[in-house]
Design a protein that fits this description.
This protein is mostly helical. The protein contains ten helices and no strands. The two termini are 16 Å apart. The protein binds adenosine-5'-diphosphate and magnesium ion (2 copies). It comes from Methylophilus flavus.
Length: 208
Amino acid sequence: MNSDTINHMAAAIRAAILAHEADIESLDREIGDGDHYINMKRGCEAIATISAELAPLSAADALNKIGMKLLSTIGGASGPLFASFFMSMGKILKTTETATIQDIALAFESGVQAIMQRGKAQAGEKTMLDVLIPVADTFKQLAGQDKPAKEIATILKTVASEGLESTRNLLATKGRASGLGERAIGHLDAGAKSCEVMIHAVCDQILA
Ligand code: ADP
Ligand code: MG
Ligand code: MG
């Protein structure tokens, strides 16, 4: 993985988020404050504007810079959470010159753990973590078994979709929806949706 790959993945993520405007926007309107799509779009555009600055950097430094950029551009609850994810991923990758798929899986896991720490949240609270935690666990397991990248990508897409669907019948105990009680049941979480969209976008690039 190098900064070219990162810029390529960032462009794929941006296109996928823009293509899912309607779903992401309506989910946060149903049980949040309706700004999640705007926040995601702002973050994606900010990364696109620094692609030339990212190009000469190592993967680790590019991820760290992405995190810092997101911290200063996306508002809301999700901004600092995504920022922690990328900064933590960058920190872990720093220790490996050429990252293997196992290194990337471990870095992804540490990014997810950083979100858990920052948001003081666990699985089952109807947040983005209900997608990210099972994806991180499965990714680590499959990378550890030396599965081919395309096989891993196919499985992770399914795990992400199942994680998203799992948020439907959960009560929200973190974030804005936590004040809604039973009213949140039956709705998917917006942050879980955007994570599913992003994971699908990255996996689709690996499968292409
Ligand atoms: P805000 O809620 O401030 O308007 P966004 O709409 O951008 O921010 O993001 C909302 C999403 O952030 C939620 O759908 C949820 O997935 C995620 N989220 C909120 N609080 C937490 C938390 N403490 N831990 C993990 N994810 C969270
Ligand atoms: Mg919101
Ligand atoms: Mg908001």
